[in-house]
């Protein structure tokens, strides 16, 4: 899924984050300090506006079939 922060007009995207991962891996990584599992795709962002106002968050994802959806 893609996460976007949009200004108060609802038209200008201010920040976008998008993890390209689409599947989770729940294999244990116990006992390893360098393991890449378990892992799950995720998004997150921090934004500090320079002025007060209204902002919107939009999440765009993919369907169960993997085709792009908005």
Sequence stretches where pLDDT stays below 50 over 5 or more residues: 66-70
Fraction in helix:
under 10%
Strand order of the largest sheet: 2-1-3
Q: Give me the Rg, rounded.
A: 16 Å
Number of strands: 3
End-to-end distance? 10 Å
Q: Counting H and I runs of at least 4 residues, what is the number of helices?
A: 0
**Principal-axis shape:** elongated
**Structural class based on helices, strands and sheet pairing:** mainly beta
Q: How would you spell out the order of helices and strands?
A: EEE
Write a structural description.
It is elongated, with a radius of gyration of 16 Å. The protein contains no helices and three strands. The protein has 70 residues and is mainly beta. Strands 2-1-3 form a three-stranded antiparallel β-sheet, with no helix packed on it.
Give a quick precis of the structure.
This protein is mainly β.
Describe how the helices and strands are arranged.
Elements: E1 2-6, E2 13-18, E3 56-60
Antiparallel strand pairs: 1-2, 1-3
């Amino acid at each position: 899924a893609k996460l976007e922060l949009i200004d108060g007009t609802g038209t200008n995207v201010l920040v976008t984050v998008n993890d390209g991962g689409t599947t989770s891996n729940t294999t244990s990584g116990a006992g390893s300090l360098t393991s890449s599992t378990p892992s799950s795709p995720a998004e997150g962002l921090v934004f500090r506006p320079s002025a007060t106002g209204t902002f919107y968050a939009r999440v765009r994802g993919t369907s169960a079939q993997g085709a792009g959806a908005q």
